[in-house]
């Protein structure tokens, strides 16, 4: 069962475009510049969270650098994840997105980075024609913040694997909304929680859904440090918007401390920012 609608995704992608413009201006502030300098010294990207940095290190430990490989992201808007995967591993990027607004955003990102915009496929991932056309076509199938919008996620995961070549890698990550962010979300954004399969956000239940896929598991567990997950609301002119903006400042301080002290490491726990799975389809 889908826990979201196309209208939700169109609205989310529109908000992302507006937030990005605001964030570019905010990045000029002194505090943001100090934090970004700490990121760059550790090899992270400007604006990248510490948890995102740890996830990148995890992927680099398990995925091969192969410029002759292709990667498809399920729910690809706004396209930044595919840019990062191409930069880190050389993969040729493809995306599938059923939100028209998301397709436009992803194609803009592809155009900006010199990728073929025809590789952004406007289609329903569940559509039989799409699944038949691209069966076994990709070396890496990637989704970030996607499978937790389904309850149960069994079918959506089997369709991920359907697109995967023998010997290819499946990478799925989801946010951990049952971590340090849960009190804020329960008080201010219960509508947001209802759109996520929060039962999936424990290591035991998360790992269980991948067992029927028959993949060689390279990693399955918690990843990253603390994250308040307030970014969807921080530009709202509302009480939860002001609360999320305040938590965003706290997040900057925590990220700065971790970039200075943790050097790309953080112990996995129930308070970690996300969960990740990396598995290889046996040839």
Describe the structure.
- The protein is of the alpha/beta class.
- The protein has a single domain (6-280), classed as Rossmann fold.
- Helix content is 44%, strand content 17%.
- It has eleven helices and seven strands.
- The protein has helices at residues 6-26, 30-41, 50-62, 80-89, 100-112, 128-133, 154-162, 182-188, 190-194, 203-208, 239-261, and strands spanning 70-74, 92-97, 120-122, 138-144, 164-175, 216-223, 274-280.
- It has a seven-stranded mixed sheet.
- Strand 1 (70-74), helix 4 (80-89) and strand 2 form a beta-alpha-beta unit.
- Helix 1 (6-26) packs parallel to helix 5 (100-112) and helix 2 runs parallel beside helix 11.
- The longest helix is centred in the last third of the chain and has 23 residues, at 239-261.
- The radius of gyration is 18 Å and the shape is globular.
- It starts with 5 loop residues before the first helix and ends with a strand.
């Amino acid at each position: 069962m889908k826990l979201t609608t196309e209208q939700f995704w169109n609205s989310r992608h529109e908000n992302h475009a507006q937030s990005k413009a605001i964030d570019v201006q905010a990045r000029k502030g002194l505090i943001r510049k100090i934090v970004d300098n700490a990121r760059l010294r550790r090899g992270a990207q400007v604006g990248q969270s510490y948890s995102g940095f740890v996830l990148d290190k995890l992927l680099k430990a398990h995925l091969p650098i192969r410029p002759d490989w292709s990667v498809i992201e399920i729910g690809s808007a706004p396209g930044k994840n595919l840019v990062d995967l191409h930069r880190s591993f050389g993969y040729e990027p493809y995306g599938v997105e059923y939100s028209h607004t998301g397709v436009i955003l992803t194609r803009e990102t592809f155009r900006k980075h010199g990728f073929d915009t025809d590789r952004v496929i406007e289609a329903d991932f569940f559509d039989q024609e799409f699944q038949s056309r691209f069966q076994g076509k990709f070396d890496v199938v990637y989704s970030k913040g996607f499978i937790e919008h389904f309850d149960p996620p069994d079918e959506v995961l089997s369709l991920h694997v359907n697109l995967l070549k023998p010997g290819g890698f499946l990478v799925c990550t989801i946010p951990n909304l049952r971590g340090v962010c849960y009190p804020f979300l329960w008080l201010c954004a219960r509508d947001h929680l209802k759109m996520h399969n929060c039962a999936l956000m424990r290591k035991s239940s998360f790992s269980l859904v991948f067992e029927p896929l028959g993949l060689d598991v390279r990693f399955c567990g918690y990843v990253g440090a603390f994250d308040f997950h307030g970014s969807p609301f921080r530009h709202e002119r509302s009480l939860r918007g002001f609360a999320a903006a305040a938590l965003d400042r706290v997040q900057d301080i925590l990220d700065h401390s971790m970039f200075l002290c943790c050097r790309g490491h953080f112990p996995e726990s129930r308070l970690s920012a996300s969960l990740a799975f990396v598995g290889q389809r046996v040839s």
